[in-house]
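User: For a reading group we're discussing how well predicted structures match intuition. Take Phosphate-binding protein. Before you show the prediction, I'll give you the sequence so everyone sees exactly what went in.
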Amino acid sequence: GNNAATTETNKSATETTSPEKLTGTIEIDGSSTVYPIAEAIAEEFGKENGEVRVSVGTAGTGGGFKRFINSETAISNASRPIKEKEAAAAKEKGIDYLELSVAYDGLSIVVNKDNTWVDHITTDELKKIYEPNSKVKTWADVRAGWPAEDIKIYSPDTNHGTFDYFTEEINGKAQESRNDKQITFSADTNAIVQGVSGDKNAMGYFGFSYYEENQDKLKLIPVDGGKGAIAPSEETIKDGSYAPLSRPLFIYVNKKKLEQPEVKAFVDYYMKNVGNIAKEVGYVALPQEKYDEQMNLLK
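Assistant: Thanks. Here is the predicted 3D structure of Phosphate-binding protein, as structure tokens, for the group to look at:
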């Protein structure tokens, strides 16, 4: 009868207006600092787009760019801007990309919970500890009155944008660091959490969300960059007073892959929701107009 025909036409009308069911796989790799954001967004996006597989790796910013330049990934997570030589390599391979900043992070200096002597540290003292050929062995070498106990030093390894950022800001040159038996370089940020929480004389650094997630096991140290000691918090990271260790976090999107409907839908979803999600996982949102500006680039 007539009814069947009308329901038919209605059905096809809604089908044409609702987007095609998205399928496919989206490969993301790079910064372990950006990972919690990407992972949370992938999960939320997946609730609405169950047919799309989003895979998020943690090769580190540098490792992620290597894969991105080889066209293995659609999106590269980065805790520092792309380096000139990486950009040149991408160009050589014909890879055009968009750089989108997604959140702010405050690189956090942590010591063991039982460390009673460090209540703040200066950027000069951090340099003394971490610089190439550092003479610092004990806490007393850093500041008179601190104990004459050997410091067990932890750092992310050279694949991490966090390492690049810290060494550039503190030591004056990216990738320049002490490299002796007193320092342990970790590919996995959670290993730094374990190392520092397991040794009274240990110290390390990583992105703010790793501190937030493990604050019951660690002590956060305010940093004095010349204007008094300031601890990272949502407020001090956002207003820039936690200096010089506040930094933007980025995603790089392969423009050619952005033409795939599932990648476009994911990146749109990402930029619309990242402000809220970044806060939930322990980062700081950018001002809304910054997201709006970047969303215009995606149109």
